[in-house]
Amino acid sequence: MSGKTMLLPPKIKPHLWFDKEAREAAEFYVSIFPDSRLIEVAMVPDTPSGDVEVVLFELSGVPFSAFSAGPRFRFNESISFWVSCATQEEIDYYWASLSAHPDSEACGWLKDRYGLSWQIVPAAMEEMMKRKEPARLARLTQAMLGMKKLDVAALRKAFDGTG
What we know:
CATH topology of the largest domain: 2,3-Dihydroxybiphenyl 1,2-Dioxygenase, domain 1
Number of strands: 7
Low-confidence stretches: none
Structural class: alpha/beta
Order of helices and strands: EHEEEEHEEHHH
Radius of gyration: 19 Å
Number of helices: 5
Helix content: 25-40%
Strand content: 25-35%
CATH class of the largest domain: Alpha Beta
């Protein structure tokens, strides 16, 4: 080694800023995703935002943190969480559980009651995208652009050119 410090891989954890509803949101998300749990809720007094509630939780084994720190920041579509679904039934379940703003639904994207964006995506679509076949990908893309909630069978037919 040439004197460089070896860095260990960092632990990366999404952190969500809520106005007042961090615990409520964490409990909501934990109720939807399997292998999820609320880990800890703590109050941090006297911050520049006032008293801040900090929430640690896991969604499908992925660690998250959140806090309720006032209305200074809002979620927007530039950040979303991708949920890869094995079946149409999973897509239907997560869509029904999370979608709260039908006017913002497009191409597998939705917004939940807290304004957080999610992408509910069939794993089959991810596999189709890896094929890198321009004509098939063009048909797949055109089919997806016409959908709100993604339909695995319709996407497959478009990709195969049979729909």
